[in-house]
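quick one: NAI bound model?
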Amino acid sequence: MGTFAITGSASGIGAATAARLEAAGHDVIGVDVRGAEIEADLAHPAGRSSAVTAVLERCQGTLDGFVPSAGVGPPFDPATMAAVNYFGAQVLLEQLRPALAASGDAQVVAVSSNSTTTQPSVPAQLVEAFLSGDEPEARSLAAQLGDAATYAASKTALARWVRRHAPTAEWAGSGIRLNAIAPGATMTPLLQAGLDDDTFGPLISGFPVPTGGFGDPDQIAAWIEFMLCDNGARFMCGAIVFVDGGTDALVRPDAWPATYDL
Ligand code: NAI
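yep, here:
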């Protein structure tokens, strides 16, 4: 049995993942702004530091897996969204990496989104600000661009960060398989807040999902559990797994696989 840290463990996809891992007999260290074993606000550097310190103390320096699931969706203050969705995941990924490497055989599943590929005009400048690690610049751009653009940019940057780092010596070479899941609209409090909004509600309801309806958090958690625990996922590295009822395939069928020329 392993020791797994999960942020956003108090609700939705994070809570469903924690429940699955605990039911399987694993030790789960939950982190959330409230309602978790470790309470920390990942919107701020101090909260991230205290979360990392508490996780490392609790796991005694060795982690078998990590799921940064904490996030917020529109409608929400865009600067805070930038801080939580990207830096609240990326900073913990960096700072928990030594504990993951100490396990010798660790799995990480970041939580991206199908907004990365199904939402038009994701702002490249904000994606670059995230990836350059410039939090003040990312927060400032986010405030100008608004919450919907910031959401998709934060999840695009997180997916790219995963792909850039997964195959490196620090990650794959240290026995850490780093992947991400990209869920489509999944019925959680985050989605419900969007549905309840006068602007976002009709947009979310009208978004085409070929299988019909919304995902269930346990359907996403089942994939995360597989990616964390099943031998079948051990050859997976740097993958962004879309579980979205077919929206990405519907919107851009020929965009992937993307080919390249030498
Ligand atoms: P949720 O609202 O049910 O859970 C998110 C959790 O993150 C909450 O427990 C919340 O307290 C925590 N959180 C928010 N801000 C925080 C902060 N500053 N510090 C610490 N914890 C904080 O939402 P859901 O849907 O389970 O979202 C989980 C992840 O899945 C998020 O990263 C979200 O962007 C992503 N996602 C969700 C989709 C959906 O349709 N529900 C679709 C695609 C991705």
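The first helix runs from residue 12 to 23.
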